[in-house]
Specification:
This protein is an alpha/beta fold and 274 residues long. It contains six helices and 15 strands. It has one domain: Metallo-dependent phosphatases (Purple Acid Phosphatase, chain A, domain 2). The strands form three sheets. Strands 1, 2, 3, 4, 13, 14 and 15 form a seven-stranded mixed β-sheet that branches. Strands 5-6-9-10-12-11 form a six-stranded mixed β-sheet, covered by helices on one side.
Length: 274
């Protein structure tokens, strides 16, 4: 089984670049499922009904979120609809609208996409992501022998860990090694060079990258961000406009019987005109 996971999509440039790129990626890699982080779909912050529909129309099967997922009011209704393949982090406090995982049916295969968010360096007080995923895995598993214990078997479990700290992401990778198919880091928008398969068979990368204008500050217009660093002045973030778009992600190959990763290949493409 092949799963294509794409990093944070940054506003209109990211959406339009993917409309060009995804048909090429499908032809080249023939993925069974395409997942992407969508918390920056709507002008770089949040998600709307229109931007969600655009993402789905260009071929993304499931969208994950992060700390910006509720920045647009339309997200509430989207997340409450259990038929819509959109998730917010699992470790938001109980009672928060939406859900933290989605089970995608691909033929006879069932693939679980889980969204978690870190706590290090965030201003918000999220619940413990380690405890949240531990509780979820009391009910779901990749291992056939654990079905007798009342667990529901998945053919793959993919975790999007939306976090700031590289140490927290790495800790989550080792914490889940052998229990999920992959732990993919998002949020920092800079693709890292540490894609690997951990010792117990879980694929890992600290950050998948972004789909946004390359000449930018993590997808934002340089001039809209620079005063924050030079003068310590608050400024309005603006999405970087036209230009060459970089698209980061990974291709996962999942073993048929065990649900563990067979391979993880880093993807970095460029779209000059979109």
């Amino acid at each position: 089984m092949k799963i294509l996971f794409l990093g944070d999509i940054i506003g209109r440039p990211g959406r339009e670049a993917l409309a060009v790129l995804i048909p090429k990626l499908k032809k080249k890699y023939k993925p069974d499922l395409i997942v992407a982080n969508g918390e920056n779909l709507a002008h770089g912050i949040g998600i709307t009904k229109i931007t969600f529909e655009q993402a789905v129309s260009i071929g993304i099967d499931v969208l994950t979120g992060g700390n910006h997922i509720f920045r647009k009011k339309e997200a509430f209704a989207l997340l409450e609809d259990e038929q819509i393949p959109l998730v917010r982090p699992l470790n938001y406090p109980k009672g928060t609208p939406g859900r933290g995982f989605f089970v995608y049916q691909q033929g006879l295969k069932r693939i679980m996409i889980v969204n978690l968010i870190g706590r290090v360096f965030f201003q918000e007080n999220f619940d413990d992501p380690f405890a949240a995923i531990e509780e979820l895995l009391e009910d779901y598993t990749l291992k056939s022998e654990e079905v007798a214990e009342g667990k529901e078997k998945m053919d793959a479990i993919i975790v999007d860990f939306h976090a700031e700290a590289t140490s927290e992401k790495k800790a989550m990778g080792y914490f889940l090694d052998g229990r999920v198919s992959a732990v993919i880091g998002t949020h920092t928008h800079i693709q890292t060079n540490d894609e690997t398969i951990l010792s117990e068979g879980t694929a890992y990368i600290t950050d998948a990258g972004m789909i946004g204008v390359e000449r930018s500050i993590i997808g934002a217009d340089i001039n809209s961000i620079m005063p924050r660093f030079l003068k310590q002045m608050p400024t309005q973030m603006e999405v970087a406009g036209e230009g060459e778009v970089e698209a980061g992600g990974v291709l996962l190959e999942i073993k048929k019987h065990s649900g563990m990763a067979e391979n993880i290949v880093k993807i970095r493409e460029r779209v000059v005109k979109y």
